[in-house]
Amino acid sequence: MHIGSLHKWAMRFGYTLPALFTDLAAMMTGAACSGPARTSQAITVAAAFPLSGDETTYGRRTLEGVQLAIEEANRGGVGPRIDLIEHDDRSSDEGAKEVAERIVASQAVMVLGPSFSTASLVAGPVYAAANLVSIPPTATSDLITQNPTTFRVLFKNSEQGEALAIYLGRILGQRRAFSSLTSANSVRSA
User: Fold this and answer.
1) Which pLDDT does position 176 carry in this prediction?
2) Bridge-partner residues for 87, per DSSP?
3) What is the mean pLDDT of residues 30-57?
4) Which among 60, 157, 160, 178 is placed 20 to 30 Å from 41, CA to CA?
5) According to DSSP H, which parts of 56-186 are helical?
């Protein structure tokens, strides 16, 4: 769905885009939504997480949280009913791109995922080309938001590094630190 189309859809249900994103964020955290009363229409949200492979634990736990939030939102009777379609990226960047291609061909109005930065960097351009909003829950690479339809929910790597340096220097009184890259899903940022 194009961002302009998302805006039109949001307005049809009495939302502004900021209110929609606020309520989606609230839905993901279990907070109460402030939108209009339930309508007879439903929306489809895609979830693209690692549900098999090496990173299954991350994907399953995130998916369980999303499922719970959607169940609560649907029970609350606020806004449209949300239908969740789950996709397994198989803990791989190639799988994330394949899933992205399937999702953009679907009726999904937005994507929750991918989980990791490298997967988001591969899938993001596919979502951007289709003007489909993507919200990766745990991707931290500085580069993921270069795609105009990818929205960050965590501090980016460079901000985390700066915050850690401030903590080490001001709180712990340290002047030196060691850093190690330990995961294939980590991305260095400039």
Assistant:
1) 84
2) 48
3) 80
4) 60
5) 56-76, 93-104, 117-129, 157-166
